[in-house]
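Q: Start with the shorter request: fold the first protein.
A: Done. Sequence, then structure:
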Amino acid sequence: MSSLVEAWRRRGHDRLLCGQRIFAVDIPCSGGEISPPLVVLHGFPTSSFDFHQVVDALAVDRRVILFDMLGFGLSAKPDRPYRLIDQADLAMALLEELRVDRFGLLTHDIGDTVGGELLARQIEGTWDVEVTDRTLTNGTIFMDLVHLADGQKLLEALPDERLEPGVLGRAGVVAGLVATFSPTADVAAEEIEAAWELISEEEGERLLPRLARYIEERRQHQDRFTPPLVDHPSPLTVVWGIDDPIAGPAMAERLAQARPDARVVLLDGVGHYPMVEAPERFLAALQGPRLAT
């Protein structure tokens, strides 16, 4: 296990949630706590580790809670169908166990959609919590604007079943991940290797076609997932890497038109993973004025 992954593992604990082993990280506020806890929902096909370079800065004035969704990172990886609503159930179970009922949301990629499901439940009154603030970053908010990567198309076209050993290896997965970065991004090799290590934990790369079913689920139920992301009344910040080949700047621009009160920061020279490609600029964007940086 690499030193980066081992350090991240030491920061968290396994919890039994909804009958599944889920890896969660709960970081206390290191300074004066002035904001409610922040719940972070990661993207596909990676894990909460994506935020390891920014999490301590996020925790200066608020508690930060992260977890690896089922099938991702250091959580259990059973051979089973994967549904967005099940990942939302896990988030709810974790927050109930931690006795957190007032919090902000920071979401990325598939985490944006899981966040949309959580917001839908809160809006319809089936989840009695308060969402105080939200930050959305590169994800499939509006499906008609999505440009799936070749790797995503391949995974979606494969049967919803576990791959045979060796069908999908490090080279292919890493190439697909790096292709979502900006061409000008300078991501350290050890960061990319750690991402692969977490994807392949417990042979998780064999489950990628199963995990990728979220794309079709997102497409079929966009009337469920999208409106809460746009309409939820909590203050909204949008931080977007504009070199994202999957969810380009048009996604953030449409969201800004729909929510003129949102604070929108467009990051040039940054692709699909702002918190990985440009962690310092990502942090500045979360706190700074509405401008392109």
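Q: Next, the second protein, separately.
A: Sequence, then structure:
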Amino acid sequence: MNTIRKAQKEDTPELAALFNRYRVFYSQQEDIPGAINFIRERMSAGDSHILISCSEKGMLTGFTQLYPLYSSTRMKRLWLLNDLFVLEEHRGKGISKQLIAAAKNLAISTNACGLLLETAKTNQIGNQLYPATGFELESGSNFYFWNNQQTKD
């Protein structure tokens, strides 16, 4: 049975290795020093909430990272569930559902109006997981993105 808890500074090296694998999964180049720096910065600044899954032996098996946002119309906090990753060898054991349940508990405990997430249309696992855990596909809105990393045409 895995346990879910908030990540601590001493988790940084192992968490950064997980975070690096997450990024590689999304076609980014491996960058352990960058991952360590990014995780350290998030923890130091307190601008994200990272929940980790630990095996019985204390090994990190997955994580989710949430960022606080605010809904002006609801006048409440809203959490962006930005990252969710479970090591391949630990998938199918309900860890993702445990991490999502912990994220929901965070939203409840902070009096947030909800959780928001985005996933690719091609993410078959995520597109089955999220509705199964109570998320609804938002069909009434368009999602736009402005990319500051300009490319030359």
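Q: Describe the second briefly.
A: The longest strand covers residues 60-71. Residues 106 and 112 are 8 Å apart (CA to CA).
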